[in-house]
Structures are given as structure tokens and as C-alpha cells.
């Protein structure tokens, strides 16, 4: 019997689990995927938002800043990668009023690090932007992080502190008898006193299992373009265009590891599972971005990807105990869900306590989780060639030449309480396969290490088979952009 069963192991579910592990409550996470952070958590903008864009009247407006200010300390404890870069909302118009409204809203939300700056100050912060920018809202405390690494870190730390994680368990039914929930999956059944529904794009389906049909998830897809490492170095902040009803617009940012990232667009005709990318949409993102930053080289494109946002029919976060006592919905967690996740975890914990969850402090709680990899400059290939050529098992052997990931780092990632069954899982923990060749060189080498460590065969086609993804390729994008120029 568990005290709390959490459904979903994205950034929200894992954050809640880690917060609950500060108590002696017996906690279970159920996840239908083969790993944690398999949904929107691994395919988003990776932005730690300022907290000025969401209306103060909305729950997401009140939680964003509360979450943002916790990132420095969480990164110090969990080592997932966070950098306070600041952000700019840019306009090319003379009218400052939209920025002033954003600023006023941010102040309502508690922010104290906002200012409106002109072309000269913008140029000092971002010298590479196009010459026609007029005004910007500057938020000093916004930043970037590695979201999938954050969820993995949260899950690892929660497990270390007593939480149980069951992967590949798709919830099929929930029944309540007395004060006990029976949660049935395709692998078995689990009993708990409380259930937290953090199932992302399937949160409405899970809620209906207990007869609560008060909202719908309306999936919204957003496509992105990622460029090779180093391309993000000229960008110093997160750069937004003025937001619209569809979101914060196409952004320009460097990832935590220095890759230029542009996107997303927004499409409300999305399927919950379709994360393919489309040449017209990707090219449109590229063309929109050039209006702000025209030094993008499409030949440095390495990957397109799509995230599915769990937009709710209320257009706000839904975080509440339902009419079914003990069943808590945590739904509609679209942007700024990543930024808000620490505050969401605190809010859910408070709801559970108010509902009767006994809270006895876990005096053995250890908040720290050592990093698997740390951000480091890449060495010239000629300097590491001898380490790449070392045989399996050699000290200092480099497995991934693009990102210079060592074998011992991969071994470490495989033995942290979560069995990593795919090359993609290793990639998200170590960056092996995230470089220029996108795993063409290192995939068989990663599999070699996994098979030795686990003593079982790893299916090299598993990642492709279970992703179901069609992505825009570099050659197709170059041809399409060339055709647009010719027109």
C-alpha cells in the first residue's frame, strides 16, 4: 500500500515525487514510457521564464516566478544544468505600450528585475541582432536549463530518498473503495491512499477514470530547429518576440551546452503522439528568426524536433483536489510548466497535507545528486583521437567523439536506480549522440557498453521503432530554403 501514487514521470511528476520524498510517505511513480521525461519534458524550449507573460489572475502567472527563483539552489543540489542568462522581449515598433503592459503584469507577479531598454542598451547585450530593433523588456533573472536532465535528476534523487518508480506501466483503470485507490496498469495493480494525476497530454483521460470530466486537453504542437554546438555562443540571452494568443512567439536562444535553438511555432491541430516535423513549418521558423537574427547558417542545422504541449480547455494550470477525495489533478501544465515545476510540487504537497496526508519528516533526506556530465569545452579532434581509438573498457576511453563523452560517464548513467533501456536514454543523460553526426558514429559503441554492463542484448532499432518520428533532414531543408530564395 502506497501513501501517494503519481501518474506521469515528466518534470512535474518527478518534481512532486522529490518534494514528497522529504517526508516518510511511501510514494510510487507510474509511467507508461520506457524512461522518465519522455513527453513534453524532453521536447521544449528549455527556458526558465521570467514570469511576466502570464496574467496575474491565472494560476500559471502566480506560480512561474515562485518556481523560477528556486532554480539556482535546485541546480546546486541536483546538477542538471542551469544558467541565468536574462531574457529580452523585442519589438521593432516605436510603441512601447505592449512592453509596459508586460512589465506591469510582471510586477504584479512579484518580479523585481524588469526594465525597458532602448536600441543602445539592447545592442550592448545582444550585438548580433538586426539593426531595426527599437525597444525590449529585459528580465535579468530568466535563464536556460536542461529540462530532461532536470527530470532525470529529480527522479534519481527521489528514488535515492525512498520513492519507487515503475516504468512501462500504462494506467488503464482507477477504482476507489473506501479510502483506497486501486490503480490498474497493463502490468499489474497498485493501491494507494492518494493519487496525483500528472499525466501530461493524457491527464483528461486519467481524470475521467474516476468520473471527473471537467476539462479537456487540447494538444498544441510546436516545432524547433537545433544547430550544432557553438552556434549559440553569439546569443547571450533568451530572445522573444512580442507574445500572441498562441504563445510567446518564435524565440532565439542558446541551449545550456551552446547549441542555437529557434522555435517553436504553434499548431492546434496536433495529435497527442505525433512528434514528426514538417518542412514548411521548419522553414517558416527559420525565416521568422532571420528577421531578428540574420546570421543563422542552415548548413549548421543538426536536428528538428516537435513538442506537444498539454494545453487545457481552461487555458490555465489545473492543480486541485477533485470531488473524488484524495484524487488530485495536475493538468494543463503547458508553458511555463518547466519554470513553475518546483512551485507546482510545493502546491501539490500542500493540497495533499490539507487532504489528510500524514507528514513525518524524512530526517535522512539527502538533497544532493552528483552530475553525470558537466559542461566543458570540446578539445580539437586531433587531441582526443587516441582516446577515441582505445578499446572497450580502457581508462579514459571516449565513446562519443562529437560531444567527447567518456565510457565511465556512460557506465555511471546506467547505474543510478533507473534502468536505461535505450540509446536515446543514454543520450539524454550523457549527450552521447547529440553532436554533429547525431549518433551515427557512437550508437554502436554506446550499445556495446550497455550490453556489457547489463549482460543482455540491446535492440539497436528500438529507439526508431518506439519514436515513430519523421524529422526534416538537413538536405531537405537546404533545398527548400533555396527554392524559397529562387521564388
Tell me about this structure.
Helices cover 31% and strands 21% of the residues. With 487 residues, the protein is α+β, with helices and mostly antiparallel strands. The strands form five sheets. Strands 1, 2, 9, 10, 11, 12, 18 and 19 form an eight-stranded mixed beta sheet that branches. It has a four-stranded mixed beta sheet with strand order 6-7-5-14. The chain has a four-stranded antiparallel beta sheet with strand order 15-16-13-17, covered by helices on one side. β11 (180-185) and β12 (189-197) form a beta hairpin. The longest helix is centred in the last third of the chain and has 19 residues, at 337-355. The N and C termini lie far apart (66 Å). The model has no long low-confidence stretch (mean pLDDT 95).
Class by SSE composition: alpha+beta
- Helix proportion range: 25-40%
Average predicted local confidence, pLDDT: 95
Total number of beta strands = 21
Low-confidence stretches: none
Q: Radius of gyration in whole Å, from Cα?
A: 22 Å
Total helical segments: 15
- For the termini, the CA-CA separation is 66 Å
Strand content: 15-25%
Give a quick account of the main beta sheet: strands, pairing sense, barrel closure: 8 strands, mixed
General form: globular
Topology overview:
Blueprint: E1 2-7, H1 11-20, E2 27-30, E3 47-48, H2 59-68, H3 71-78, E4 82-84, E5 87-91, H4 97-108, E6 114-117, H5 119-125, E7 135-139, E8 143-145, H6 147-160, E9 164-166, E10 171-177, E11 180-185, E12 189-197, H7 203-208, E13 220-229, E14 238-241, E15 251-254, E16 259-263, H8 279-290, E17 301-309, E18 318-321, E19 327-331, H9 337-355, H10 381-388, E20 398-400, E21 405-406, H11 407-414, H12 423-430, H13 443-454, H14 462-467, H15 474-486
Parallel strand pairs: 1-2, 1-12, 2-9, 5-14, 12-19
Antiparallel strand pairs: 3-8, 4-8, 5-7, 6-7, 10-11, 11-12, 13-16, 13-17, 15-16, 18-19, 20-21
Amino acid at each position: 500500500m502506497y501513501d501517494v501514487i503519481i501518474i506521469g514521470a515528466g518534470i512535474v511528476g518527478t518534481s512532486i515525487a522529490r518534494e514528497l520524498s522529504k517526508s516518510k510517505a511511501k510514494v510510487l511513480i507510474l509511467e507508461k514510457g520506457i524512461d522518465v521525461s519522455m513527453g513534453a519534458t524532453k521536447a521544449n524550449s528549455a527556458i526558465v521564464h521570467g514570469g511576466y507573460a502570464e496574467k496575474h489572475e491565472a494560476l500559471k502567472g502566480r506560480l512561474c516566478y515562485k518556481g523560477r527563483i528556486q532554480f539556482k539552489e535546485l541546480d546546486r543540489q541536483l546538477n542538471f544544468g542551469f544558467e541565468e542568462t536574462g531574457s529580452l522581449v523585442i519589438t521593432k515598433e516605436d510603441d512601447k505600450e505592449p512592453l509596459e503592459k508586460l512589465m506591469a503584469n510582471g510586477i504584479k507577479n512579484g518580479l523585481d528585475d524588469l526594465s525597458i531598454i532602448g536600441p543602445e542598451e539592447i545592442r550592448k547585450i545582444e550585438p548580433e541582432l538586426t539593426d531595426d530593433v527599437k525597444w525590449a523588456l529585459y528580465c535579468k533573472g530568466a535563464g536556460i536549463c536542461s529540462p530532461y536532465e532536470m527530470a532525470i535528476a529529480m527522479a534519481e534523487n527521489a528514488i535515492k530518498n525512498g520513492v519507487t518508480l515503475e516504468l512501462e506501466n500504462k494506467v488503464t483503470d482507477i477504482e476507489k473503495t473506501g479510502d483506497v485507490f486501486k490503480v490498474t496498469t497493463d502490468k499489474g495493480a497498485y493501491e494507494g491512499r492518494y493519487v496525483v494525476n500528472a499525466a501530461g497530454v493524457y491527464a483528461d483521460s486519467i481524470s475521467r477514470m474516476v468520473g471527473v470530466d471537467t476539462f479537456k486537453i487540447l494538444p498544441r504542437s510546436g516545432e524547433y530547429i537545433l544547430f550544432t554546438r557553438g552556434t549559440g555562443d553569439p546569443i547571450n540571452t533568451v530572445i522573444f518576440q512580442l507574445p500572441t494568443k498562441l504563445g510567446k512567439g518564435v524565440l532565439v536562444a542558446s541551449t545550456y551546452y551552446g547549441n542555437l535553438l529557434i522555435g517553436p511555432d504553434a499548431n492546434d491541430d496536433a495529435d497527442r503522439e505525433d512528434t514528426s516535423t514538417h518542412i514548411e513549418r521548419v522553414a517558416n521558423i527559420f525565416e521568422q528568426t532571420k528577421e531578428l537574427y540574420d546570421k543563422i547558417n542552415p548548413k549548421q542545422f543538426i536536428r528538428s524536433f516537435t513538442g506537444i504541449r498539454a494545453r487545457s480547455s481552461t487555458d490555465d494550470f489545473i492543480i486541485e483536489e477533485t470531488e473524488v477525495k484524495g484524487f488530485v489533478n495536475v493538468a494543463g501544465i503547458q508553458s511555463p510548466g518547466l519554470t513553475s515545476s518546483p512551485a507546482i510540487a510545493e502546491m501539490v504537497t500542500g493540497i495533499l497535507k490539507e487532504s489528510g496526508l500524514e507528514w513525518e519528516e524524512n530526517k535522512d533526506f539527502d538533497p544532493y545528486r552528483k552530475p553525470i556530465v558537466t559542461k566543458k569545452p570540446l578539445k580539437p579532434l586531433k587531441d582526443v583521437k587516441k582516446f577515441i581509438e582505445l578499446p572497450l573498457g580502457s581508462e579514459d576511453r571516449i565513446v562519443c567523439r562529437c560531444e567527447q563523452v567518456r565510457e565511465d560517464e556512460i557506465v555511471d548513467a546506467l547505474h543510478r536506480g533507473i534502468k536505461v533501456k535505450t540509446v536515446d536514454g543514454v543520450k539524454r543523460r550523457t549527450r552521447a549522440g547529440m553532436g554533429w553526426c547525431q549518433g551515427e558514429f557512437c550508437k554502436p559503441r554506446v550499445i556495446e557498453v550497455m550490453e556489457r554492463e547489463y549482460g543482455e542484448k540491446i535492440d539497436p532499432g528500438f529507439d526508431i521503432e518506439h519514436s515513430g518520428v519523421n524529422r526534416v533532414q538537413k538536405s531537405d531543408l537546404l533545398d527548400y530554403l533555396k527554392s524559397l530564395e529562387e521564388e
